[in-house]
Amino acid sequence: MSFYSEIFYKKIKNEPRILKEHLLEGFAFNYFNSEEKSRNPDWRVANNRQWARNANFVSELQEMAPRFQSKGIKPVLLKGIVLINDIYRELGARQLSDIDILINLNEYQNVKEVLESFDYSEQELNKWQGDDFKSIFIKEGPLGQIVIELHTRLFYHIKKEPDYTTIPFMTSPYLKLAIEENLIHLMGHLVFQHNFGKLFWLIDIDLYIKKYRDEINWEKLIVLSKELKLQKSILMTFTVLFEQFETPIPPQIVESLGLKKFYIWKNFLNWNLLTSSTQVSFGYYFIKHLTKDHISTALQYDLLWFRHKIKKTFFLK
Q1: Are residues 232 and 168 in the same domain?
Q2: Cα–Cα distance between 68 and 110 in angstroms, integer?
Q3: pTM exceeds cut of 0.85
Q4: pLDDT tens, 236-270?
Q5: Which CATH number covers residue 70?
Q6: Range of 118's domain?
Q7: How many other C-beta atoms are found inside a 10 Å radius of the C-beta of residue 304?
């Protein structure tokens, strides 16, 4: 028995490699039954480690809040740091490696000054066009490094993004994306940017839909996916959730998106690919290109990455 999806539980309960590689041991401790937990002491260790680390991240944001407020800056928090106190049962249930923050480009210098006043150092990165909108700041904390990743937009392929709707986070002056914007970002991050890289990103979306299913404006979500060129991302995400997790996606969305239809990529986007420890298979690269709404976007990504690797290999030594 599990406090989570039974179909997922049956697939993964006897798969220690998958739980470990996909950073799900803390999740298993919080969502699987007591008998399973007693047989897997590593789950408790992972939960306690993640709980302490995540609590430290939350505390760090609370300490910096007055400084941001004094400068009139309202950072928009993204992904894990928002979700751990929203859709998860406990802080230790979800792995969190950094704090993702969306800011306006014209606020960058002021945000940098705030972070530096709290002993963060900006990292020198060999950026390429796929991540030139991100900056990383790091400081040493009591439980290891605290990493903050600043974003000046959400997706590399959309140069001029719309004005996203935001709502207050639990600590002022921080904000978070509204429900539909948050969901489309989670799906774009999972599929378009990372090709289903980790199972816990799928669990994020599953739990988010289960909590907000009746509040989601599904029509707005579809419009956003078209505007951001992420229609394939939501189609693939919903298909996997519908078939592998039994996520309660509304029937009208199942019908309108054609989740029950046959697509050739379904032969590759299977449980083996979702749980694979390698990213060099034919199926992986096939799906990676099909996640883009247009083949031109996929080929442009390939070209940019190839140019970056050539430059890094031959000119930056």
Answers
A1: no
A2: 9
A3: yes
A4: 999 999 888 889 999 989 888 888 887 888 888 88
A5: 3.30.460
A6: 1-177
A7: 15
